[in-house]
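Narrative of accomplishments. A recurring question from our advisory board has been how the design workflow behaves on a single, concrete structure rather than in aggregate. To address it, we present the structure tokens for one chain from the evaluation set, followed by the sequence designed for it. No filtering or post-editing was applied between the two.
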């Protein structure tokens, strides 16, 4: 059971904070997240998810858990109301499982880590690369359903657990500081990244400027709805829920839409080392947006629609900026499997940004057409 720096005895002790020790059958690594350490725990025949919250990222884990509880209470109430889009389908939200002693949502271990346990969405799977158009439609539906369920959750009920998250101008400033401090030797690939960023600095404020003008407004968001955070039913392939909810907070829904499109429409995946294979697939984008609009159209404004393509381009650029900044800083934020992992990840995102830019006119026309179809339907 040893994995990711936590030995089996320590994991057993942590899991026992949530489950009776004699019921724990196995603890195995789960998923491919870049931030938290995640394990699947089988106890008493039931699977649950055990996670160590990365407090270098989430400095106030208590607020993270407070948001999860607030979110769960709200969504469960909404699910008890008639929702035509969910007729004949299931939808689940991971629920917080408290400690055996103290009924607390967090457990502070002997090594200083903060751990939590949540329910596991059974008979479902996630994917890292889209396998077909029907799946793309479901991924869009999944994000749209999540947004619909939380669209009436007042933002003041959610803590901002990651101040500055997805505020691209702030990441641009962090990058400049990392570039000044970095002792890494420059090469052709790093010079390409530096030039790429310099040529797009003015674009970094596109969403924040729209918000400042009152065109876009804060709403509850998922914060990280990349492709493998949407769970798909193992039999039907239908979207059944979103996971990795630590980033739920007030924000612009464009952060979510942009991240969903960015991660889903690159068939090569964000860890590809073949830049020539990286491309923004407009066909997949059409399926995703059709699925999204089928549930979310009711609360989207015309201004929301206007900035969807900008969001896809910006979040691709932003993630590349973050990967490159982390590479310059020694890969202290995103987990890296080899020394240049985050540099390669940055190059993939920048290549994806270029692909979106090359198709901008076509993508804007596509968004407008799909919106009109959803209005008519």
């Amino acid at each position: 059971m040893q994995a990711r720096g936590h030995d089996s005895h320590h994991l057993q002790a942590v899991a026992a904070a949530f489950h009776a020790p004699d019921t724990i059958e196995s603890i195995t690594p789960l998923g491919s997240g870049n931030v938290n350490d995640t394990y699947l725990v089988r106890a008493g025949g039931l699977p649950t998810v055990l996670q160590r919250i990365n407090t270098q990222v989430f400095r106030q884990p208590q607020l993270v858990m407070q948001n999860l509880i607030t979110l769960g209470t709200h969504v469960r109430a909404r699910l008890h109301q008639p929702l035509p889009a969910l007729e004949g389908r299931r939808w689940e939200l991971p629920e917080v499982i408290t400690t055996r002693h103290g009924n607390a949502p967090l457990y502070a271990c002997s090594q200083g880590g903060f751990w939590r346990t949540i329910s596991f969405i059974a008979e479902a799977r996630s994917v890292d690369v889209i396998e077909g158009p029907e799946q793309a439609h479901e991924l869009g539906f999944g994000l749209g359903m999540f947004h619909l369920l939380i669209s009436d959750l007042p933002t003041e009920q959610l803590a901002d657990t990651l101040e500055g998250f997805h505020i691209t101008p702030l990441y641009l400033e962090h990058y400049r500081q990392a570039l000044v401090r970095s002792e890494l030797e420059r090469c052709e690939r790093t010079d390409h990244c530096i030039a790429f960023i310099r040529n797009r600095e003015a674009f970094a404020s596109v969403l924040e400027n729209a918000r400042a003008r009152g065109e876009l407004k804060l709403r509850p968001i998922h914060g990280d709805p990349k492709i493998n955070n949407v769970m798909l039913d193992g039999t039907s392939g239908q979207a059944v829920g979103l996971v990795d909810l630590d980033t739920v907070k007030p924000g612009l829904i464009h952060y979510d839409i942009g991240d969903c499109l960015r991660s889903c429409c690159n068939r090569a995946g964000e860890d590809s080392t073949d830049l020539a294979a990286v491309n923004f697939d407009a066909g997949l984008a059409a399926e995703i947006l059709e699925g999204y609009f089928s549930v979310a159209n009711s609360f989207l404004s015309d201004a929301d629609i206007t900035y969807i393509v900008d969001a896809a381009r910006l979040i691709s650029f932003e993630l590349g900026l973050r990967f490159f900044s982390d590479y310059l800083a020694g890969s202290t934020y995103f987990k890296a499997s080899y020394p240049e992992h985050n540099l390669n990840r940055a190059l993939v995102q920048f290549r994806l940004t270029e692909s979106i830019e090359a198709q901008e006119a076509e993508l804007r026309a596509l968004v407008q057409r799909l919106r009109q179809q959803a209005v008519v339907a």
